[in-house]
Amino acid sequence: MSRLAGKNAIITGAGSGIGRASALIFAREGANIVAVDRVEGAVDETAEMVRAKGGTIKTVAADVGDENAVKGFIEFCVSEYGSLDAIYANAGVSGGLVPIQDQTPAMWEEILRVNLIGPFLAIKHASAHMVKQGKGSIVCTASVAGLRANAGNTPYSASKAGVISLVQTAANQFYGTGVRVNAICPGLIETGMTAPLFEGARARGSEGKIGQLNPTARYGHPEEIANMALFLASDEASYVNGQAIPVCGGLSSTHPFAPSRRGA
Ligand SMILES: NC(=O)c1ccc[n+]([C@@H]2O[C@H](COP(=O)([O-])OP(=O)(O)OC[C@H]3O[C@@H](n4cnc5c(N)ncnc54)[C@H](O)[C@@H]3O)[C@@H](O)[C@H]2O)c1
C-alpha cells in the first residue's frame, strides 16, 4: 500500500476521530506525518498507534486558530521531512446546541476562529511552500452542516459553509500553480465530537435510529472520511480541485423523508 509513498503530510485534529483515522491511513499508505492537536496526550497516543504499525510520525501540540502556531508546524514539517506535499486541515469544534437567543459573539468568534480561520491559516502558510514546489494538495473538513440546516448549530453550520467557500475561492486563487484545494463534507460520523449523541441514544435504547435519515441507512465511521482525505491528498485526485465532496451515506442527496424500505 503506497498511495502516498514519499509524501510528507500534516493532519490537524489528529488526536481523535477523523484526524486519528487519517493519520493511521496516510501512514499506512507511506506518508511521513506531522500530527497536530491541541491535546498533547491525545496526539501522542495517535503517534504510538501509527508507530506500532511501522509508520513515520512526529507530533506537535498546537492550536490551529493561532497563526504563529500554524506557521510553526508547517515549517516544522518542511524542516523535518524536506517538503510539505499535503495538509489535511481537519480540526474543528461543534460549539454545542445553544439556542440562537442565548448565543454570544464570543461563542461565534471561537467557533469561526477554529473551524474557518484555522483552515484559512493552513491554506495561507501551506500554499507558501506548495506554490514554490509547483505542487501540493490541501484538504479541509467542512460538513454537510455547511450545505443545509439541521446537521449542526448556527455558528457551526456557518463556519462550515465558510470552509466550502474558502476551498472554492482558494483553489481559484492558486490558478495554474499545481496546488489543489478541496473539502470533505462528512455526514454523521461516530467520533469524540458526536459521542454525546451516541451515548445518549445508547442510554435511551434508541441506537438503531441513528443515521437512519440517509439512504445508506447507517452512521459513518472515521475511516470512511479518512479514505476520501487519502484520495484527495494523493495524486489520484490530480484533476479534483475547488470541490466540497459529501461523504454522508447520501444524507445531502435527499429531501426530508419518512424512512422506509419500500424502494428496496
Ligand atoms: N463527527 C461528525 O459527525 C462530523 C461531521 C461533519 C464534520 N465533522 C468535522 O470533522 C472534523 C473532525 O472532527 P471529529 O468528528 O473527528 O471530532 P473529534 O472531536 O473526535 O476530533 C477533533 C479533534 O480536533 C482537536 N481540536 C479541536 N480544536 C482544536 C484546535 N483549536 N487546535 C488543534 N486541535 C483542535 C480536538 O482536540 C480533537 O482531537 C471537525 O472539523 C468536525 O467539525 C465531523
Task: Name a few traits of the molecule.
15% strand, 264 residues, 7-stranded parallel beta sheet, alpha/beta, 7 strands, Rossmann fold, binds nicotinamide-adenine-dinucleotide, 42% helix
CATH class: Alpha Beta
Instruction: Give the helix tally.
Output: 7
Global Rg: 18 Å
Structure classification: alpha/beta
What amount of the residues lies in strands?
5-15%
Q: Mean pLDDT, nearest integer?
A: 96
Biggest sheet, in brief? 7 strands, parallel
Distance between the first and last residues' Cα? 36 Å
| Cα shape | globular
CATH topology: Rossmann fold
Low-confidence stretches: none
Number of domains: 1
Helix content: 40-55%
Second rung of CATH, namely the architecture: 3-Layer(aba) Sandwich
Concise summary:
By secondary structure, the chain is α/β, with parallel strands linked by helices. The protein has helices at 17-28, 40-52, 67-81, 105-133, 154-173, 195-204, 222-233, and strands at residues 8-12, 32-37, 56-61, 86-89, 136-141, 179-186, 244-247. It has a single domain (8-191, 221-250), classed as Rossmann fold (3-Layer(aba) Sandwich).
Summarize the structure in words.
With 264 residues, the chain is an alpha/beta fold. It has one domain (8-191, 221-250): NAD(P)-binding Rossmann-like Domain (Rossmann fold, 3-Layer(aba) Sandwich). The protein is globular and about 50 Å long. The longest helix is centred in the middle third of the chain and has 29 residues, at 105-133. The chain has helices at residues 17-28, 40-52, 67-81, 105-133, 154-173, 195-204, 222-233; strands at residues 8-12, 32-37, 56-61, 86-89, 136-141, 179-186, 244-247. The two termini are 36 Å apart. A 7-stranded parallel sheet has the order 3-2-1-4-5-6-7, with helices on both faces. The model has no long low-confidence stretch (mean pLDDT 96). Helix 3 (67-81) packs parallel to helix 4. The chain is built from 7 helices and 7 strands. Bound molecules: nicotinamide-adenine-dinucleotide.
